[in-house]
Amino acid sequence: MKLPLHFFKAPKANDNGKTVILIHGLFLRGLGMYFIGRFLNLHGYEARLYDYFTTRKNIAAHGIDFAKYIMKVHAEKLERELYVVTHSLGSIVTREALSLLEKGNMNIIRRVVMLAPPNKGSDAAKTTVSLIPFIGKFVKSLPELSSHKDAYVHKVPVPSGTEIGVIAGKYDMKVAEKYTHIEGEKDHTVVPVSHSLIVINRAAIKNTLKFLNEGKF
Predict the structure, then answer these.
(1) Sequence-separated (6 or more) residues with CB below 8 Å from residue 49
(2) What residue ranges do the domains of the chain occupy?
């Protein structure tokens, strides 16, 4: 059963007129972004936790779904600036979605913060696929995240109309810091944390807020 889309209304006392959409990574669900969403909400943002089944579709299909959701939020909140915070696979899905929106001249996301994004793939995904060649039948996006030169992740467009900040984990054993960089990134920083725990790491969360507010870490 699909979980509902989780929603934190903007606080009345310090509403900053901005909405942030948070999209989770592989094998997780929307509540995995709860702590970041709640923190941003306390600092003036309306926060929405996007929820999707990560294993059932490939990146392109996930991107279509997410682009539709972004458009839905935009239509509901025309007066608010839109931002996105991503984790892991969610970063690549976001790139796919924003490329679709840009094709329709819909550059509606001002800034994106990517946490542990496999922008240049993942050696862990590459190893898993080599050891379990049929894994793609069950986890459709995993082979696409491989650091292999032919993997789909290397074909996903880079958004051109959005400021992107990247936060990598120093102890990330799934996505090496060198693979987190993306062409045209506005800023990049590294925090002392692992891949999975970056979404609850205090330094990562504070840096996320700083980039959303200022466009720099």
Answers:
(1) 5, 6, 7, 22, 24, 30, 31, 33, 34, 37
(2) 6-122+158-214
Residue with the two structure tokens 């880079």: 158
Q: Give how far Cα 107 sits from Cα of 23, 58, 137, Å.
A: 18, 24, 34
pLDDT tens, the chain, 217 aa long: 344 457 777 777 899 999 999 999 999 998 899 999 999 999 999 999 999 999 999 999 999 999 999 999 999 988 899 999 999 999 999 999 999 998 877 789 999 999 999 999 999 999 999 999 999 999 999 999 999 999 999 999 999 889 999 999 999 999 999 999 999 999 999 999 999 999 999 999 999 999 999 999 9
> Which tokens belong to 137?
């039948």
**Paired strand residues for 122:** 146
Superfamily of domain 6-122+158-214: Alpha/Beta hydrolase fold, catalytic domain (3.40.50.1820)
175 vs 118: CA distance, rounded Å: 6
DSSP secondary structure string for all residues of 132-180: -GGGGGTSTTTGGGBSSTTSGGGGSPPPSSSEEEEEEETT-SSS-GGGT
